[in-house]
What we know:
Chains A, B, C, D: InterPro entries: Homeodomain-like_sf (IPR009057), HTH-type_TetR-like_transc_reg (IPR050109), HTH_TetR (IPR001647), Tet_transcr_reg_TetR-rel_C_sf (IPR036271), TetR_C (IPR011075). 4 copies of one chain form a homotetramer. By secondary structure, chain A is an all-alpha fold. The first copy, chain A, is built from 9 helices and 2 strands, in the order βααααβααααα. Chain A is 62% helix and 2% strand. In chain A, strands 1-2 form a two-stranded antiparallel ribbon. Chain A starts with 7 loop residues before the first strand and ends with a helix. The relative contact order of chain A is 0.13. Chains in contact: A-B, C-D. Chains A and B meet through helix 6, helix 7, helix 8 and helix 9 of A and helix 6, helix 7, helix 8 and helix 9 of B. Chain A binds a DNA duplex through helix 2 and helix 3.
Amino acid sequence: MTSSFLWTLRSFKHFVNGSSICQAGPVEKRGRGRRPAAQVRGEILDAAGKLLLDEGMGAFTIERVAAEAGASKTTIYKWWASKGALALDGYFHAVESTLAFPDTGDIERDLLTQIRAFARLLTRTRAGRVIAELIGQAQTDEDLAAALLEHYSGPRRQLAVAAMERARERGELAAGVDFEVVVDQLWGACYHRLLLPNLPITEKFATSLVRNVLRGIRA
Amino acid sequence: MTSSFLWTLRSFKHFVNGSSICQAGPVEKRGRGRRPAAQVRGEILDAAGKLLLDEGMGAFTIERVAAEAGASKTTIYKWWASKGALALDGYFHAVESTLAFPDTGDIERDLLTQIRAFARLLTRTRAGRVIAELIGQAQTDEDLAAALLEHYSGPRRQLAVAAMERARERGELAAGVDFEVVVDQLWGACYHRLLLPNLPITEKFATSLVRNVLRGIRA
Amino acid sequence: MTSSFLWTLRSFKHFVNGSSICQAGPVEKRGRGRRPAAQVRGEILDAAGKLLLDEGMGAFTIERVAAEAGASKTTIYKWWASKGALALDGYFHAVESTLAFPDTGDIERDLLTQIRAFARLLTRTRAGRVIAELIGQAQTDEDLAAALLEHYSGPRRQLAVAAMERARERGELAAGVDFEVVVDQLWGACYHRLLLPNLPITEKFATSLVRNVLRGIRA
Amino acid sequence: MTSSFLWTLRSFKHFVNGSSICQAGPVEKRGRGRRPAAQVRGEILDAAGKLLLDEGMGAFTIERVAAEAGASKTTIYKWWASKGALALDGYFHAVESTLAFPDTGDIERDLLTQIRAFARLLTRTRAGRVIAELIGQAQTDEDLAAALLEHYSGPRRQLAVAAMERARERGELAAGVDFEVVVDQLWGACYHRLLLPNLPITEKFATSLVRNVLRGIRA
DNA sequence: GGGTAAACGAGACGGTACGTCAAGTCTTTAG
DNA sequence: CTAAAGACTTGACGTACCGTCTCGTTTACCC
């Protein structure tokens, strides 16, 4: 994969906590005074992202994040409205995602590319589990829910809808079709298998999704 | 609604905790000994269902359920593997759902009927929120996840797939189509809007879902 | 030591739980019907004694005894008034103590023999810890307290007092001395070091006890 | 009693939980944040002491202490190693004991005074029962046992031994006598009757204890 | 360049819920 | 019919986090 795609992430950041050459020696006990806000924020997000990817939402507690970031809980509560909001922020901080939906002029090909990349993201990386747990947590965490809609699913929906609108202008897609619904039928179907995994998310599944919605399934 | 539908529930049970005529009188302090297992189970499920529907998963704790059922935590832990498993059981106990997917001979009409009923269930009753929270909880609760797949989503998938297979035998649907994928594109799309509610679940949305997948959206 | 003494026990019973030939196989699930009372009592006392001597009062619970005796809690509650009462009974069942205070005609020699044997019992066998824990438990267990006074300390006090009265009749001890008090100053002093072990119970300690009370400590 | 004595306590503190003049008014809902450690400790010890003296060790649970102190269990677990350690601390906090062993130059008189005062403490106040229960609890609570030896029985032993050594220097007591043993024969004998109450602790008992050990009981 | 205020770390605090254990009571069922 | 079996309530246990709050410290900014 040479390019990056919608709903996809470019790479997981490396969380290198120190060279193995380092001796266990003096732990560089930091004082307790004021430090630059940006630095503290960064360390908290590093710790949050690492914890989230390494151990999942089950082990993600504000206390653990504070402890591993060397920060205090007070500081975290000052900046993030809820555990979930911090987790989402940590996720974005960790994964360096790229939002893009390049047009090749063939909407079927573009949709296939995007959906397959998304399917791979969900199945081949730890992001799948993390996203699932974030969506799960959002069901009982208003702040996370709001953040998720605004910064995660919203922008991704828009990008896909815009690509389909461009295709319609090119005459590839029918007028009168609500592309928002199509998004639910492509990406939403993937989330369905992610969150209620009766069946796996496969390459074939991704292909069928696009095929069904583009050509219909009637006899 | 004169008939009942797939993924639909017939009615919420009434949680009548005693006629208002009853006097506050002797509280009938029960002893601590053994009571019939079935009775205890029933009272626990009543309490679990009521709590879930009234206050949601956020307020659903084993301690609350035990207190309101007049049961002990030990007993609950003996029978249910996790908080989520109890919640799911309480939900089923409360909603008396009916699984059915009647054929009229017109698959489009049948799918429309089912999806619309499902959309109404999610939006017009408290079941929508409860299902969302159960799915959310299942992301970090293995026992609930397993129960949900086996007793909730699994049977419902099968019913829909079977109906479409009957339609194919009648010549309504094309051979070579994976109906499991269609399920994800119809019901899964609804779950998408339930769990990531950037857009509402409407009658029009339900209609578009069926239309898109049956006839395709190509120009 | 060829003879046995007051406040002393002859031997610990062997707790052989089964021949090593026995296979781990079917646990011989006994039915729930009635068994001879004496047999059940015996098995319960075996289990209680073994548990008490092996793991101490901290691990001694009615549930453990019931489980290891293969009996039900109900049966235990029917025959013993409290946990402590069962423990005491189990202790007596296990240790096969002998109450005797033989006269040699020299009361100092006899007291020394008895006190030294008691000191050895407390320090060299597990009985010391068990007695301490039983006395401890008796402070918040009325039934055990009553049983302890009646079946343990009471008879032992009487035996010692009687021996000293015989010595008085022989002209060895002064008239007008309350021998009950002497018992507290000999055996009671040992219990003091058993229950509040600032100092150990030694051979020298035992000797000093007898010397002090027989001859006084004045200059 | 005009002076205060070894092993004796001066007075029980008054547990006044609020003047009756106080109105029921604003309940002064305290926030959940940190309060001065000393204040919290004090309130916990007040509650522990009051509970111990009022209802005894049987009703003494960490949960009750926390509830009545308006503190949280976590806080208690942070500072006290065990239930017994808290109880002992609460006892000391409540009774304001005075350790003193004044010399009059007549050791018999001084021992009599001290032993009688101790006997009165054990029989006339609630301290007797509490001490018995603490010693009882210590038999299965290592932390309490250690605290009891170090802060209770140890210092009291030393004081009595020191007084007798002073008497020996004055020529009142014989050389070569182990005064630690004498302590066991005086105070230990009292504990014997406290913990195994076959016979009561009386004024006459106290007198006999001192007489026997000072002058011997030989004919 | 010194003084001050904001932001920080540390972590104790009151709480809620967890999951476990034993005590003691009561129903069911086997013999 | 009766006693063993064992399911039940109760209540305390000790732990984990929650979100709040007090403290003392340290930097950054302003005068």
